[in-house]
């Protein structure tokens, strides 16, 4: 067993890398005696291991780590973003396609929120995407009840304190007042618990619909409710700065980008056909020609074609978030140059 810091990796990192649990969850497994190394049960995560060590979790040998993968998931309302729920409510993991490997969610969307949720099989990637230091803008379309003017939104742009907790300045744009409701586009970088809902309450507004449309360079686009789409490996490597070794690149491996479909929840019909991550669907349409926008476009739908707010200018981020129906499910523009002769790369 290797216990010098200069050799190997922390055991919690190794367990997370194998997709068994996140680092924090792995540390809890170790503390309760569910992990052994070379036949000896351990109770502290302060241990480094190398590929020569035999790690067993819950009686099962730790498999070799799979290459990191990330998926875009259009979370519907009514699902909780946890592995299990004390109240017995359905979770996102209950609704995911069975052919997916074991995945973890990057951050959360609460029960009544919908839109883009990132999934990954790699605990290290999950941690990297969630770190505040990443600084990626998360953009939301938000419907609030009440008459809204610019003066009400100014405290949000300066940074507000709600329930004794200070939130960083938000990017807030008033898109449209529609009867008793108004649609806003809001960009945040922290993603604290119920941050937008709590901040809105602080200025006297009640959120009655919240849709995440982007997370850094990853866009919801026209991905149907309940659908899952894998991010292309090249885009994943470029956006996260992963080395070829970290990606486990194999020259013979086929590129990712396959879309896995589940029937849409509610009255919306599931889309047909695959949408390639980082590229558009059929000409003039999203996947299957459908959009995952509001169920009743005449009753409080977000205005079409609007995103509001300035584009995210931080390095490594893609175009600003689009409202549902604003484009095909996408991640980032393909960095490959177009071939000679003026033809467009498909």
Automatic annotation (TrEMBL):
PROSITE patterns: PSI_RSU (PS01149), S4 (PS50889). Gene3D superfamilies: Alpha-L RNA-binding motif, Pseudouridine synthase I, catalytic domain, N-terminal subdomain, RNA-binding S4 domain. CDD domains: S4. This is Pseudouridine synthase. Residues 242-346 are annotated as: Disordered. Its EC number is 5.4.99.-. Residues 276-291 have a biased composition (Gly residues). It catalyses: a uridine in RNA = a pseudouridine in RNA. Belongs to the pseudouridine synthase RsuA family. Residues 292-305 have a biased composition (Low complexity). GO terms for molecular function: isomerase activity. PANTHER family: PSEUDOURIDINE SYNTHASE FAMILY PROTEIN-RELATED, RIBOSOMAL LARGE SUBUNIT PSEUDOURIDINE SYNTHASE B. Keywords: Isomerase, RNA-binding. It comes from Lacimonas salitolerans. SUPFAM superfamilies: Alpha-L RNA-binding motif (SSF55174), Pseudouridine synthase (SSF55120). Residues 9-67 form the RNA-binding S4 domain.
């Amino acid at each position: 067993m290797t216990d010098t810091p200069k050799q190997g990796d922390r055991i919690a990192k190794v367990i997370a890398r194998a997709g068994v649990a996140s680092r924090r969850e792995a540390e809890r497994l170790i503390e309760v005696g569910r992990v052994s190394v070379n036949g000896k049960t351990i109770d502290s995560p302060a241990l480094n291991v190398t590929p020569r060590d035999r790690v067993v979790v819950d009686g099962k040998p730790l498999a070799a780590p799979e290459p990191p993968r990330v998926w875009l998931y259009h979370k519907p309302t009514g699902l909780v973003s946890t592995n299990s729920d004390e109240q017995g409510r359905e979770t996102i993991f209950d609704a995911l396609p069975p052919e997916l490997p074991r995945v973890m969610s990057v951050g959360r969307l609460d029960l009544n929120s919908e839109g883009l949720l990132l999934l990954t099989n790699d605990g290290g990637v999950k941690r990297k995407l969630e770190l505040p230091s990443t600084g990626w803008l998360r953009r939301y379309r938000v419907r609030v009840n009440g008459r809204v003017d610019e003066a009400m939104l100014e405290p949000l742009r300066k940074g507000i304190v709600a329930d004794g907790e200070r939130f960083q300045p938000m990017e807030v744009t008033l898109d449209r007042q529609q009867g008793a409701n108004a649609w806003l586009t809001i960009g945040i970088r922290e993603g604290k618990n119920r941050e937008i809902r709590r901040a809105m309450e602080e200025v006297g507004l009640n959120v009655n619909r919240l849709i995440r449309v982007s997370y850094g360079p990853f866009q919801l686009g026209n991905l149907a409710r309940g659908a899952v789409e894998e991010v292309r490996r090249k885009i994943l490597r470029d956006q996260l700065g992963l080395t070829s070794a970290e990606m486990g690149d194999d020259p013979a491996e086929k590129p990712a980008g396959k879309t896995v479909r589940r029937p849409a929840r509610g009255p919306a019909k599931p889309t047909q056909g695959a949408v390639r991550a980082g590229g558009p669907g059929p000409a003039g349409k999203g996947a299957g020609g459908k959009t995952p926008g509001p169920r009743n476009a005449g009753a409080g739908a977000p205005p079409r074609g609007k995103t509001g707010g300035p584009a995210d200018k931080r390095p490594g981020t893609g175009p600003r978030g689009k409202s549902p129906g604003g484009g095909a499910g996408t991640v980032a523009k393909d960095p490959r140059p177009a071939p000679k002769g003026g033809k467009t790369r498909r």
